[in-house]
Amino acid sequence: MSSNPESTGPAGAPQLEIPVPTGEVRLLSEVQRRLLAVPGSRKAAVMLSHVGEHALGWMAVAAVGMAADPPRRGRWAMVGVGTFSAHAASVVLKRVVRRRRPDHPAVRVGVGTPSTLSFPSSHATSTSAFALLAGAVSGVPVAPTLVPVMLASRLTLGVHYPSDVLAGAAVGAGCAAVTRAAWPSPAVQRMLPAALRDTPEETR
User: Would the pTM count as exceeding 0.70?
Assistant: First the structure.
């Protein structure tokens, strides 16, 4: 292959060479190809992208929990706060790391994004935090299903590298753990409105 990005094609016409995918680009391209072969995968991935954008869908679920489950209103508030905090942490990390999103002909980008920064995936971060916190409050283990599906959706759409989504899941899990540990503390409980403070049953 010529080192020149342009080579001469038939009749002397300039022809742009497509760079061979390597490393994580190659891995992403192969994973995306397999995921897109699943019927309906792209449509489902786009829907999840909209739900998880800026964590708004997950915070809406937390708000519904606060309204529909008064005995655990404070704990559903914890879910919302933890999810928002995880999203905010991912945005800060993106601006520090400044890794660019995939941009290679071998990767098909299937949705628009609000920024060009990639690491970590904010969708993966907020979804992981939400799933772990909501599962702890509701008693329904949603994380083992929801988190892998969201991670796969970001690869399906070609907007993140595999390491972006794995790092996002790890950051989200860490934020969920910190939130669960901090929420019952006297310092946090004193700052909350009375309606959101833990009941004796929740502190046991």
Answer: yes
